[in-house]
Amino acid sequence: YPKAGVYLDPKTGLLVDIVTSDPNGPQPPDPDSLPEKNMKPPILGNNETFSLFSIPVYINEPCDEEWRARYGTNWMYWANYAVEVADDYLYEQFGIDFYSVAQNVWNSNNITPGDLLDEAKIEVGLTNGADLMVAFSGQTYGNTLGIAYINKPGSLIFDSGSNWNGIIVRHETGHNYGLAQWSPTDGNNHCTRPTCLMYPILYGPTENTTLCADHRSEWLNNRNRY
User: Fold this and answer.
1) A GO molecular-function term, please (predicted)?
2) Where are the domains of the chain?
């Protein structure tokens, strides 16, 4: 995949999305340089006003050996933390409430984003009654932050540190819900608003972290997909 965008995976025939950081802008820190004691603790639970209309969505979180080695005994905790960060905004906006089913042990044997995503889907996928799979890898692939199926329940997050990972989960699960569903492109047919979460380049954990009006409306219409 040459750059950020939506592509047709020739092996599976599925549309996939690639999201990247800005090669000329701020980059995620090297997670190995972030001692766990300095990471922001998760805020568990939801107190938003959407609680009467909550939509539970059950998540499998396969984590490869590189992720597990990086986070040591806390590898499950930090995978769940990323899902919780993604969930906070989605619960507030749509009542979508992510619940972690399991942080699965996954031994990755591939190196390219598409192959890794397919591998996690085959090895773990929607086992344990999960509705969505959000896989985590400690591998790096240039400035690629994540990859996801369009309109299918699976994504893969490349570890970019605790402050970035949750926003990447939020972006990629948007594609699982059908956002940015276009024909295969050269990467130019995502949201054209750089302030939108669904823009193909993420500028940081405090920049384009919320949805434009069009994509919010689209996700609201699709909120019961899972």
Assistant:
1) metallopeptidase activity
2) 5-28+47-221
